[in-house]
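Recap from last week: sequence in, structure out.
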Amino acid sequence: MESKKPLLFTFWVIAIILGVVLYKQFDFENLKFEKPVLAILYFIVFAFSVYYLVKNSKKRSDK
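Predicted structure tokens:
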């Protein structure tokens, strides 16, 4: 159980960094990303890390 804490921290850091990067890359005037292919990759990893965090928080609340 104790080994999951560093993993959770890692996913929090990944989610925060990728969220900021996606926000900075988005051009609000043209409603486009500067680098669309890279933004897709960032979004996939961001979505996975948020999914993992939500899934893990549900397990903790059940205990």
